[in-house]
Amino acid sequence: MKIVDLYGKGTFGLSFEIFPPKTEAGESQLFDALEALMVYRRPSFVSCTYGAAGSTQDKTLELTAKISKTFGITTAAHRTCVGSTVEEIRQWLKEATNAGIENIVALRGDPPKGQAEFNKPEGGFAHANELVALIRREFPHVSIAVAGYPETHQEAPSPEVDLVNLKRKVEAGADAVITQLFYDNHDFFTFRRRYEEAGIAAPLIPGILPVVNLGQVQRITSMCRARIPVSFLTELEVYRDDPDGQVGVGIRYAIRQCRELLDAGIPGLHFYLLNKSEATFQILQALKLSG
What we know:
EC 1.5.1.54, alpha/beta, TIM Barrel, MTHF_reductase_bac, methylenetetrahydrofolate reductase (NADH) activity
């Protein structure tokens, strides 16, 4: 199955994002987490991230193929432009094809650790739309998802420029747009309105990261400049020294957030699992998305 076929026509897309574990124990825990979510037989796909500067590029392909084989579900491999020449990217895409991978999440990628900004690799790409264009031109059988930013990409000079960049990626051949995490649905709805007004037709999928640890999510949001609403943050702060309390607050908030998004007619939900399933499992149960 391909991403291009997973949304619309009365179907709802449910997807999960994971990252390659560094140890065998971590991989075992990841597969246990995915197994727990397989009760939701409707997952459209599982996507596997690609480390900074290609630090997990081999593992990404291996794990993406293994998940597909183990659970019999559609998978997608992430690919970035960081630290690679065009020829290296082309070779990686050939390896992905040989591994039976038909879906790619195409990203420019974040600067490698220790670098303040993204630098175009020598002989490589500067922007994600160039990566999308390469895939569409030379690997036409592959379906492509790209990233969108409800609160604007942290490097974009303005929301208007950011939206132009996104439209460029879709026009280059992307089949769907998955958003960065966000915690205020107003930001998503405003973004969706502007997205539609710009004439972008690809399905727009909200990305959801349930809060299970306040310190962790504050680090993540600080890196991507996502905003935690004051009321939500205040509620979490009450349980600063109570991990279980934080989890409960985060799950209840995510349930409310997702219900509002579902009522607004979104074509799918994309959950950032961080390789754990408990919170997402409870959210999906509450939303009655199993089956």
